[in-house]
Design brief:
CATH class of the largest domain: Mainly Alpha
Order of helices and strands: HHHHHHHHHHHHHHHHH
Distance between the termini: 16 Å
Structural class: mainly alpha
Largest sheet: none
Helix content: over 70%
Strand content: under 5%
Radius of gyration: 21 Å
CATH superfamily of the largest domain: MFS general substrate transporter like domains
Number of strands: 0
Length: 416
Amino acid sequence: MSHPTESPPMAEATRRRPALLVLAYLAFVSLGLPDSVLGVAWPSLREAFALPQAALGAPLAAGAVTYFLSGMLAGRLIRVAGIGGLLAGSTALVTLGVTGYGSAPAFVLFLASACVVGFGSGAIDAGLNTYAAHHFGARHMTWLHAAYSAGAALGPVIMTVILTSGAGWQTGYAVISGGLGVLAVAFIATRRQWSHNSQGSVGTEAPREAPRMLSGWTVLRHPRVWLQITLFFVYTGIEVAAGQWSYTILVEARGVDTATAGTWVSVYWASLLAGRIVLGFIVERVGTVRLLRLGTAAAVVGALVFAAPGLPAWVGAVGLAVLGFALAPIFPALMAETPRRVGAKAAPHAVGFQVSAGTAGVAIIPSIAGFLGERLGLVVIAPWIALCAVLLALLHEVLVAKADRADSRRLPDGFH
């Protein structure tokens, strides 16, 4: 059975709205900027507020909780405000939160700012993914997520340059908030363009859109939605667990020197970015479903090679790089397939739930890896990641089978 990757209306929408496409790329870059800056700013920030090292977890947890909540509410927010209104308001919230980072006189206000940034970022993530899945197609969806990776790489560079110039971390956050403020103004100015949609799908203005969307509870009643939610939970958990634990595994469990281990971990993240750039050129030619199958299978191979005992250390590093490249198309391709698999009426809620599930996966699966490593030794973390990769591949095959059976018939409550 064939699996469409981009309908003619999507391609036409991309051609008709180049300014929105450029703005979407800038927005994904902006999503990555605040996420990656805290680690660089933390030593200076900790000194300024006289904090213990463990306090780093507080702003991360605050942002993750509100990010999760925002994703869960995204479908309802789109229904009320339209995608344009959601993007404009959420970008303004993130700008406000990042400004709060740089001007907070006390750590408790820094935490409050983290909540604001998390809520706004979750809504932007869900809103942009919803719009891109309907209007930009799989190729641009893949590159949009590469833009997020580019933003995540750029954030530490900006903060490092500012700190080494003698300015404080407050200045770094002020520079980032200035850029976000410009983006917020652009979203406010274009909010009606984002919401207008002659096809009458999820991009319509709120009063016309509301009756067309399903309720969140209706969407959650369908097993296919839960399969997608679980896929996002497992995927993000694998991506972050491999990135966060591989250095410790290489150095403490396998005796690799710190410089080499750091280089290999950098190669993992670079492979993820490179994969999204390279595979964006071929995803529509290969097809999203075929690429997802290849990606999940290759992720299993890479994870198993990294986990295999007794191999030379460089072989494990190659497995880590293969894992990063294989994971690259999975998140954006799954997002691009969401409207086809669950229907346009359910997609806004489903995308929001998937964003939230991804946030939960980031928190839970690497934490389980840490618990297993503490109880059973670091050697079990790589096999745990490999097991999750196998689960990811199996879940995707189940999802494909269910979607194929339903392609020729309309399911209840607007699913098709």
